[in-house]
Amino acid sequence: METKFAPAERAPELEVVNLFELLSGVPLLDEILGSVPDVLLFLNEHRQIVFANRATFCFLGIEPTTDVLGSRPGEALGCLHATETAGGCGTTESCQTCGAVQAILAAQQGGSDSRECRMAIGDSFDAIDLKVSTVPFKYDGELFTICALQDISHEKRRLALERTFFHDVLNTAGGLRGYTELLLESEPDELPEVAATVNEISQRLIEEIQNQRSLMAAEAGELLPALISIRTKELLEELAVAYRHHEVAEGKIITVAADSDDLTLQSDHTLLLRVLGNMVKNALEASSEGETVSLGSTVHSDEVEFWVNNSAVMPREVQLQVFKRSFSTKGSGRGIGTYSIRLLVTRYLGGSVDFESTEESGTTFRVRLPRGV
User: Fold this and answer.
1) Is this prediction's pTM over 0.70?
2) 243: pLDDT strictly greater than 80
3) Within this chain, do residues 40 and 181 fall inside the same structural domain, yes or no?
4) Same domain for 65 and 146?
5) Which of 52, 141, 147, 154 is nearest to 90 (CA)?
6) Helix or strand run (H / E) with residue 352
7) Domain co-membership, 78 together with 61
């Protein structure tokens, strides 16, 4: 069976059952493991689950069952990529960046390992962050991998939000302080221009705080969209004007495609502006001086598509991890942008988001939303 990373072959069902019965016969094993609060999986040489502790079923939200036997960790947890290929968990291109698969393969080579895994769950795109620890275990001539999973989603979410918040707010506040110092030193005829810049940066600081508050509410499932009528062309022009004065746009060109479809849709203006603004900012950050970032909108039946394009091409390793919480090319703790785009679009705006990045056309992010009218 074809694979793009870990071996795809599986053990026959009878062999899996025999291994389960072997481990079930170990005196007090179930009782001992029952006191462990983290998920513990015993895997065979094909990375299939042959035994699990009670915490596993609590984590999955199901009663203890043998139905998980023979599945692989990503399949049991509902990983988005586990159903992409016939080989299942561990065999897709995306699995090359999966900390869980890497840790399991390392244990199969005879050593213990510990890594973090960012996992997108099913069509809902809920994300969980796991600490995955593995160790080889031999019993009665059979070699197993013990795989411990600890949910660190809350910790990672809090740290990422805090670091992003402090980074963005301090940057903006630093700029504000610089201009207030300039204000104190300015000649009378210079005051109106400097004061206008101070006002603009102050508004940006307020927006950073409001954006952070809305993202925290979105993560907690407490965000309530306020639907209003929005003209697509007006929204694109609003974005272009706003970001032409942003520091990341210095020396770069922002254009709105002349053939963009202009129509009315029902959506949350603030959330949509945040999503598209994030896309524009990311495109500008990826562009070099003199390059162009283009925005546009296209109608597809009962949907409207917003797109943002820049000429840079993302490395394949980056493409495989886009939209994962905590992943960033900007350094530790800076992985909120694309994750927040998908979170807001799929959970609160009722749409979908995707991208393509090729040498021929550069990188284009697309958001599709129902027109709602």
Assistant:
1) no
2) yes
3) no
4) yes
5) 147
6) strand 352-358
7) yes
Whether 2 maps to a domain, the answer reads no
Contact (CB, 8 A) for 57 and 51: no
Domain boundary among 185, 204, 223: 223
pLDDT digits (tens, 9 = 90+) for 108-129: 999 999 999 988 776 555 678 8
CA atoms of 272 and 370, how far apart (whole Å) = 12
321 & 297 share domain: yes
Q: Which residue has the tokens 């524009």?
A: 280
The string of DSSP codes covering 75-140 is HHHTBGGGGSSTT-TT-SSGGGG-HHHHHHHHHHTT--EEEEEEEEETTTTEEEEEEEEEEEEEET
Domain span at residue 266 reads 224-373
Whose CA is closest to 120, among 318, 352, 323? 323
DSSP SS3 for 370 = strand
- 372 and 244 assigned to the same domain: yes
Chain mean position to CA 214: 17
> Total domain count for the chain?
3
pLDDT tens-digit profile of 157-168?
666 666 666 766
Nearest to 118 by CA among 317, 319, 323, 279: 323
DSSP 264-322: EEEEEHHHHHHHHHHHHHHHHHTPPTT-EEEEEEEEETTEEEEEEEES----HHHHTTT
Residues 265, 231: Cα–Cα separation, whole Å: 7
The span from the CA of 140 to the CA of 117, in Å, is 31
**CATH number for position 323:** 3.30.565.10
CA distance 216 to 55: 28
Q: From CA 347, how far away is CA 223, in angstroms rounded?
A: 10
CA end-to-end distance (rounded Å), the chain: 47
Q: Are 248 and 350 in contact (CB under 8 A)?
A: no
